[in-house]
Write a structure and sequence with these properties.
Blueprint lengths: L1 H28 L4 H12 L7 H7 L4 H13 L3 E5 L6 E5 L1 H10 L4 H8 L3 H20 L15 E2 L10 E3 L4 E3 L19
This protein binds iron/sulfur cluster.
The site of iron/sulfur cluster has 11 residues, from loops.
Amino acid sequence: MADLDRRLADAIERLGHGLRSLAQHSARAHGLSPLQQQAVLALSRRPTVRREVSALAAEFDVTTPTMSDAVTALERKGLVTRSPGADGRRRLLTLTAGGEAVAGELAPWDGPLLAALAGLPVADRAATLHGLLRVIADLQRQGVVSVVRTCTSCRFFRPNARTDPAAPHRCDLLEAPLPLVDLRTDCPEHEPVVATN
Ligand code: SF4
């Protein structure tokens, strides 16, 4: 099985290279860096992302100064504004109308990946989602990835609480089964598991 694990890790790494290349191509076409592109997309469509430089930095595993530079560049390009938050101190980030328009153009950047996935049977896609979310949760426990709001890292997640192979898990918050095809990657209700040691 070690050989299978090696080949899986190689395949995921290969996927990462391909996605990086797609992201660079899309960002360059819009005069942005890949990090600036990620920030614009996060501000436009991620319901759970906090609209602050430090939160975006944690989201994308970069330092706060690096993200601050990216946001300053987006301000200069007229795509993002900073305004005082409710406490008057923190600066909240908002896309301008121009930023929203660019976000719409950037949205299909990973279209080739979505098209490739759509070619797989639904059961394969569900099993892949399930497996990847378990790996991500494990990597979070090891401190490899920081911000994760997936079912598999949530305190409300009850793994293998049911006998239905298509919906073996349960969400205690929703008080409902979680079909594999509905496992969440960015849930607004997510709460991390509290470490017990
Ligand atoms: S609260 Fe959200 S992330 Fe947590 S188990 Fe339920 S659906 Fe999944």
